[in-house]
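Structure in, sequence out. Go:
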């Protein structure tokens, strides 16, 4: 192992190296294996210890913080439950990719209404593409009890989204419909919320096959990804859309279900929350 030198480390000047060597610490191995508190006391290098050592955390405190900032939220939509292990997790991003007409917005509305009504959670719905139409609003109005817990905010640029998130109060779920390339740096998962985003498909110039518009730059962001295909058989019974699980930390990928975007019944309020509702 190398000898301690001043140049490789900006905070380690030559005078400090000499003090350490006088205390018997001459190599990097000596330094990393020594008791830093004892070294600091002998050499008087408290500033080096304060500047470059990690702040100590108690494991019990970290576990307590994890319990208070983590929630597992039930979706309540049968076919999506099977693909998402029945839950959305705070701190994770769930991405829905699909082409035009694949009902991405309708699925997002289902999730928002279910969680607002069944779990009594506050929902922030960020509409970055103007896709929330009058018919979608009518669907929300029919669920009047849940509507008061859903904030629908238009945000058409990257500067509006952080402002909206900061000013929205206590939230557990954020839905972004849809997320543009410029918003990839927005780390929503750091806010201890369950995040659902939608993104579009584009046609490859050479093969003419559909592919995600955000490509590889977005592939590492969602913890769970769903591919929503264009549905078949619109009518009284609704429109059935194939949906495939392409990425998941909880379940094997490749599973496919169908989701009906035409008819959907909002589940009853969670029994555990019925007594707390005001």
């Amino acid at each position: 192992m190398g000898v301690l030198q001043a140049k490789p480390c900006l905070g380690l000047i030559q005078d400090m190296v000499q003090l350490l060597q006088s205390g018997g610490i001459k190599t990097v191995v000596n330094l990393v294996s020594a008791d830093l508190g004892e070294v600091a006391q002998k050499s008087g290098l408290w500033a080096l210890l304060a500047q470059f050592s990690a702040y100590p955390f108690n494991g019990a405190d970290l576990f307590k913080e994890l319990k208070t900032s983590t929630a597992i939220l039930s979706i309540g939509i049968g076919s999506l439950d099977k693909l998402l292990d029945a839950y959305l997790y705070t701190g994770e991003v769930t991405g829905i990719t699909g082409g035009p007409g694949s009902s991405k917005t309708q699925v997002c509305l289902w999730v928002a209404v279910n969680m607002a009504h069944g779990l009594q959670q506050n929902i922030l719905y960020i509409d970055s593409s103007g896709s929330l139409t009058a018919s979608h609003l009518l669907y929300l109005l029919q669920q009047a009890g849940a509507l008061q817990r859903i904030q629908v905010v238009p945000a058409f640029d990257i500067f509006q989204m952080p402002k909206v998130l900061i000013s929205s109060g206590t939230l557990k779920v954020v839905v972004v419909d849809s997320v543009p390339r410029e918003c990839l740096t927005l780390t929503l998962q750091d806010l201890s919320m369950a995040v659902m985003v939608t993104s579009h498909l584009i046609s490859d110039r050479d093969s003419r096959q559909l592919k995600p518009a955000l490509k590889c730059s977005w592939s590492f962001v969602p913890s769970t990804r769903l591919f929503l295909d264009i549905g078949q058989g619109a009518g009284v019974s609704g429109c059935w859309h194939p949906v495939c699980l392409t990425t998941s930390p909880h379940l094997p990928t490749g599973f496919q279900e169908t989701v009906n975007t035409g008819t959907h019944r909002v589940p009853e309020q969670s029994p555990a929350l019925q007594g707390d509702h005001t």
